[in-house]
Amino acid sequence: MHSDKLKYDQILKPGHVNPEYVRWEKHRVWQVKATLKDGMRHIYKVRDMYLDEDSWQVSIADLYDNRDQLYRVAVAHGLNYYEVPTQWDTLEVFHDLQSRRYLAMGLDNQSGMYNFDAKLTEANFTPDALRREGIR
């Protein structure tokens, strides 16, 4: 899924990510269940998250609405960058079960891959820096 040989339209299909490019493997996870505090409002009443024990990143999250119905499911497709070393996501997918749509974020197959050698300063984290990175 992370290959620069794949185009986005090969990975992203109507209703789901192409399973031909998805790899699943067992990982030890820690389950963290977050429940909305009484008297507070939020789109999610409960977030049931599964954190990968090695990276502490959320790998899968079940998101429940205020009717206690499973509303959305989030899946982070992890990737090991052995040269850094770190584990990062190559794709994050959010499935909306009510609208039967999904949002995919983070693909970089048709653009530059992550540059972990970038030398950043505080100037890289200003509104002007964000404006410079924008595409019109």
Structure description:
Helix content is 8%, strand content 39%. The protein has 136 residues and is mainly β. The protein has one domain (8-111): outer membrane lipoprotein receptor (LolB), chain A. β1 (12-13) and β2 form a beta hairpin. It holds the Pfam family DUF1329.
List the helices and strands and how they pair.
Elements: H1 8-11, E1 12-13, E2 16-17, E3 29-35, E4 46-52, E5 58-64, E6 70-81, E7 86-96, E8 101-105, H2 127-133
Antiparallel strand pairs: 1-2, 3-4, 4-5, 5-6, 6-7, 7-8
- In percent, how helical is the residue content? under 10%
The unreliable regions are none
Through-space gap between termini: 28 Å
Structural class: mainly beta
Largest sheet geometry: 6 strands, antiparallel
Strand content: 35-45%
What is the string of helix and strand elements? HEEEEEEEEH
Q: How would you state the average pLDDT, rounded?
A: 92
CATH domain topology: outer membrane lipoprotein receptor (LolB), chain A
Tell me the Rg in angstroms.
17 Å
CATH architecture: Clam
What does this entry show, briefly?
The chain has two helices and eight strands.
Question: What are the key terms here?
Answer:
136 residues; mainly beta; outer membrane lipoprotein receptor (LolB), chain A; 6-stranded antiparallel β-sheet; two-stranded antiparallel sheet; 2 helices; 39% strand; globular
